[in-house]
Design brief:
Layout: H1 11-18, H2 22-25, E1 42-55, E2 61-69, E3 72-78, H3 84-93, H4 104-109, E4 119-122
Antiparallel strand pairs: 1-2, 1-4, 2-3
Length: 129
């Protein structure tokens, strides 16, 4: 046997120390992970809608759309400057007259041109929407 300094185990002893009994060496059972159930988006009927002037911390002006559906208030922000295409699409979808508003104050003054929102699509987040 080769010389080993005191306090060190030989390789044979190391193997003996690392040997496990058959029950502990069996693969551990991990709990089965269930897939998160993702519900599809749902259309819900709108009770009311209003438009407000909103100014964020950076000073950018936008339209805040508050929609009440199922007694819950849903909010959507539309920037007429940064996201003009989105705001224009909303305007056209709600039968607003052309040309589309160029700024927030024009939007708010012409909001009576828009037809009412009938339904919105909401995506559930857990047990809430």
């Amino acid at each position: 046997m080769p010389y080993l300094p005191t306090g060190f185990a030989s390789p044979i002893e190391v193997r003996a120390l690392r040997k496990r009994d058959p029950e502990s060496s069996a693969p551990k059972k991990t709990p089965k992970r269930t897939a998160k159930v993702v519900e599809p988006p749902k259309w819900i009927e709108v009770q009311s809608r209003r438009f407000l002037h909103y100014k964020n911390a950076e000073g950018m002006e936008s339209i805040l759309v508050e929609i009440i559906a199922n007694s819950v208030c849903y909010r959507m922000w539309m920037s007429i400057i940064k996201a003009k295409n989105r705001a224009d699409k909303y305007w056209r979808d709600h039968a607003g007259n052309e040309p589309t508003p160029a700024n927030v104050s024009e939007w708010l003054s012409r909001q009576d041109e828009l037809s009412a929102t009938a339904e919105i699509m909401v995506r559930p987040q857990g047990k809430y929407f």
